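Question (not urgent): is this output format expected?
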Amino acid sequence: MNKSKMLDQIKDNYGFKKDAELAEFLEITRQTLSNWKSRNSFDAELLYSKCPELNPAWLLTGDGQMLQKDSTDSINKETDPEVLREKLVNLLKQLDALEKANNALEDANESLKETKSILQKRIAELEGK
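Got this back:
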């Protein structure tokens, strides 16, 4: 099994043009990827953890389909306009909730600053006596 070719197939599947892009995606150095290719090896566990749609049997043997059967359906669902709209609506709701939480934290921060100032003045008064 030619693991260098397998790495190139993974790179192509993700739409990366350069090995550096694949290395960054995998969170490894370019040198590590280069070493894998030159030594005809790779870390199958790492690849599977970063690319769970890969067929584990293919990763271990190089035989069969690269992608698990469910991954094609998953990719189609990810690009479905209705699914994307629903995700966008959920993200907007999350953003709104985060903005409200941020405003509440800013208010609490201001209140704490005022309390700190009052306490510092009181400490100064007590130390001065």
